[in-house]
Amino acid sequence: MNPDIRLITAPEYKSGFKFKYWDIAYGDINLNRNERTQVITVNKSDIRLNAVYEETPLASDSNASKAGVVYESKSGNFAINVWGEENSDYTDLKTALISNEVDRAVLEEGREIKYSVVFNEAVPTASDSNAIKAAGGEYTKAALKLDIGLKRYVNDIFSPLASNIYTTPKVHVYAKLPNKMLGKSEYKLWKLEKDENSTDTVLTEIDTSHTKLNTPYFTGSFDFTSDIGSKILISYKDTNRVAIVSALPGEKYSQSKVNVLNVISGQTLENTPEYNMLALDIDKIYTEPATGIVYNFAGLSKDKEGHKKIGTDVPIKEQMILYTVYEPAKTDDGGSGNTPQGNINDIPDNTSDNHTENNKNYSKDKKTGDSKSDGVYSSSSSTSSLSKIIYAHKSAAETEGGKWISLDNDRKKWAFELKDKSRIKRAWADIKDASGAVNTYCFDENGVMQ
């Protein structure tokens, strides 16, 4: 994976207010926060970077300049907008928080007040998961729980919240999903509350229709509005990558197309719009030019020979490679009007299963493995090459703390062992070396680096 090198710059003054520093809301990036102009290196991550300028005092309150609002997020995946003097979200939030007698008195004394919006992340509980499944269906997963809290500091010393403070103002949240949560379907945000008359969990969906959250262009970043004090659940549905190898009669598999579909776990192909579009192309009558034999599409199979057919009405619960099956057309009397030539999948393919082009095709396979949307790719008769298309992807963060281990005396076979002693298998993985550089590797079903 090659990092992206960019030049960033900010005006020294904006609306008469001087540049203060760069704020990294989220993302994997190294920079000098105080340099207005500099070259930065962006690793594989969505980032949100904003220039912060001197703050405009509230016109009605000269003491308000001694108050401020910041945010805390241990993961670095959540932020509020604290950037720039023209930010009405920030101004409205600060005004709401300090509009109480206690804070007014503190500010009159010349002391400083700082409020911090705190994003606390946690693993959803069993009751959270049950509530999400009840709302979204069997295959919906509660992926992340977020508690939006509030802290108060006076002269940088932690102080209790004032008794009459307005503790539930709205905040506009900027967020980035962890890499391990990307490549899913039907992302949703829910506000979690308890029913006042029972112990039941009440979920209210938060509007994210203005974001790219459920579009092919989603790369992890989104935003939403919520109240301070809210508990938020993020849910999604798992997807299974299905590679459909489309080989017409007389065509070698190494020359055919591979259509990669992301199918929601538990959903059938016939209920997947992308497959129905593909069916218009593969479900057809075909006359082979060389022989004149007419073939009909006979379905999909888990093997090239067509012995393990699978119906499009079968729920997809795992990653898989499927092959198109074509059979000679039947005549009116029930026989075949064609000279039997065998199933299309019986045609030999002289391309070696261990061909040496795999490493040369790394960039193509890597692009395929990273893809979050459906795509069409060239095929190969190599099962290992096809498998790379449907492998999952692990982020660098998930692999930190692991180590490389040699599997043979010649040190030609390597695996990557994680902290729990397990190996990365059937996956692409971004692995950071001692210098901080991140490289991407592919591991087969036995955990051997390809």
From TrEMBL:
Listed Basic and acidic residues bias regions: 352-373
Q: Biased-composition ranges for Polar residues?
A: 338-351
Q: Where is this region: Disordered?
A: 328-382
Tell me what this protein is called: Bacterial repeat domain-containing protein
